[in-house]
Amino acid sequence: MSTHTPPLQATHVTPPHIQIRRRHAPGSAGPSTLSQSFSLGPADVDISDTSIGTPTRRRVTALSTSEQGNMGMHGQLSPRVRSNLARSPGATLAPGSEPRTRSRSRLSEVFRPVQDEDMDDSDAWTMLDSMRIWRSDAMTHHLYETAAFWANKILDWTGDANDAFWLAQAYYHMRHFVRAERLLTEPLPPPRAPLLDKGKHKASGERDGHADEDERKPPIREHLACRLLAAQCLMEQEEYEDALEMLGVQSSFGETDAAATRPSTDQGIKVFSSMCYLRGLLHLRLSSPIEAKESFMEALALDVKNYDAFRELIYGQMMRPGEEWEFISTLAYGSQLSDEEAAFVRLMYISKLRKESHVKEISAAGRELAVKYGLGENSDVLVSIAEELFANYKWEDCYVVTSKILNKVPGHSEALTLQLACMHHIPRLHSAIYALAHSLVRTEPHEATTWWAVGMWYYSGQRWADARRYFSKANLIDQRFGPAWITFAHSYRQEGEHDQAVTAYSTAARNFPGSHLPYLFIGMSYLQLSHSELAEEYLATAASYNSTDPLLLNELGVAAYNREDYLSAIEYFQAALQGASRMQGSSEPWAATHSNMGHALRNLGRYEEARSHYASAIRLNPIDATAYASQGMISQFLGDVRGAIKLYHQALAILPQEPVATILLEMALTEQVRTLDPTTLPGLPAAIVDKNLDPFSVPKGNPAFGPLPIELDPLTLEEAGDASRISAQGGSSRTVTQGGSGRTVVPAGRADMSAMSMSMSQASYRHHHASVVDESSVMDIEED
């Protein structure tokens, strides 16, 4: 979660008719210059519009809840440092009467001093004003002990809720959450500051008179910002129910639609929006994702500048892709921002949407940000480009872009996740994962991406149990880190533990209700378990989220194939291949889809088309044993038993333990021996007909099967030169000159081959699915 720090005292652009004059310490030789201090002081900045300490400003407690909620934090709780710009341009300082500021800087001679004029005594600085400067500067410099030390004294003097808020901020940054929460929820003591009576500007509590201690209210009842900070402290203490009760389980503002059309009164982030965002985080901690989603949507609708709410919705995948587009593109940008600001914010948000729908519009937004706004080298714009490349399976290009981002912004979480995924898919970079993970453990040991990187190193090495241990550690650090949940489940499925895998996928589905990937992977697991009906239910759910994912279309085709609906299967496989071709990315992951298409075509008797797809599968993946065995099956169907035997041997050379190829090879060899005279097979010596033959005395050799030995049997060569007759599957005979003796081949029975065809198809799916799904699944993890 984000913390709310006091606003920096940033330099403001001053209108040309106003001359900034500097104050110098009383009794000093001359006027002070611009650089009297390392940090900007009250005379350096113009924050008069937001300071509550000036007499002309009404107290925030007099504002309505609606008015407070539509202001930024600075608008209602200022550090109360004052600027000389608060005075009229004609007011001047009397020489020697200026209040003391801070010590001179070594750069004080760089700027030309400006002679100050007389100043009204009402603008004299008190010690309280100086101490507030110390407190503000200490917060800016992250000196929280210093800030708390001086803020504590200021609060004892003033007893004001404004000063209590800034002391609580210091406690919050020091992780003293109980102390900060108690300070904000208990009544403040009355002011007791005798020294301040000499000053011209008293605290707000003093201006209102000394109220009785029993009548004083706790800060959370005076300022919404104090209530927000107290709720944040409760959340850090894991008191989620109490924090939600303090904020309200549901929005109590009752004016979301009206407030969404109004800009912030001080150009800051509306406190209403921050409260809604915090309410969403609390709902997430309490495992209520639907309520959390509604709170984040309300936070972003109230203030489109609240990027934290946007990030939870989009990167937390709490909305479906179509719902994302409709919500983000119709926010009230124009009502809350100027025309120029509204156009820019809208483009930035659209460029960061998921690249699953409205891809052209998202790409156009990224190009406009690069060309019109000069953000082509900005890390967030580059991440959007990398996400689009990754979604299109262009891992090499994506790796180049993410490397560029990480060189500029080390540890960028989105870029780092994408780069690790790309390195997993590029085999030559597997060893580099170790070096990257080791560096992350040393530099960022508290980040979830660090331990996910360690897990990816083991995952790439197929050490599933070790990988799972580090994925689990990443989940403990950040329960909203989607890649760790998905790869954690993948590691179970790789070990064949499908029940545990389905449980982990189901948890991911609850955590990321807008993503189709968990449902897809559950369906894939059930397909591997042969639970086709359950698989189709989950795949149909995934299709309702994203119907164009090629991987999902492939799985739908497999489900249709399993119920023997081959025409539907072919349609799904064809759609998957068309979607993959439009991506213009790596084609290797789609070798299994080509193989699956071949199975469906073969079962419809379209052998030549099937052979073409098997050839495509082998071209994309030369070590695809199932594709070789499937081609051998088609050869055997067409009567070319010898060609089938050769292909079966090629398949077994790649995967010696392939059970289906082994059975098919045995069938082919049995068919060949059973239907042909063993003594007439090409390559056998003629003397084999002699029952008293000594096998060790017969020379070998046949020119049809390779180089001949030195000693040859003439009878063998003579009889091996005849034509052989091969019987085609349909019963007609044809003559094929093969350099062997005449033979007649009778194909195996149609029923036997059909049974083996189905078995082959299922085994083909299991084998290729295990390899390709692993690649495709991990590839899609980082889009969550």
Automatic annotation (TrEMBL):
- The stretch of residues making up the signal peptide is none
Q: What UniProt keywords apply to this chain's record, in alphabetical order?
A: Cell cycle, Cell division, Mitosis, Repeat, TPR repeat, Ubl conjugation pathway
Q: What is this protein called?
A: TPR-like protein
Q: Which domain of life does this protein belong to? A: Eukaryota
**Record-linked Pfam families:** ANAPC3 (PF12895), TPR_12 (PF13424), TPR_8 (PF13181)
User: Where in the sequence does UniProt note compositional bias of the Polar residues kind?
Assistant: 1-12, 30-39, 726-738
Q: Does the keyword Cell cycle apply?
A: yes
Bias-annotated ranges (Basic and acidic residues): 195-217
Check the record and name the PROSITE patterns matching this protein. Answer: TPR, TPR_REGION
What InterPro entries does this protein map onto?
Answer: TPR-like_helical_dom_sf, TPR_rpt
Query: According to the UniProt record, where is the region Disordered?
Result: 1-107, 188-217, 723-747
Biological processes annotated in GO: anaphase-promoting complex-dependent catabolic process; cell division; positive regulation of mitotic metaphase/anaphase transition; protein ubiquitination
GO CC terms, sorted = anaphase-promoting complex; cytoplasm
TPR repeat boundaries on the chain: 591-624, 625-658
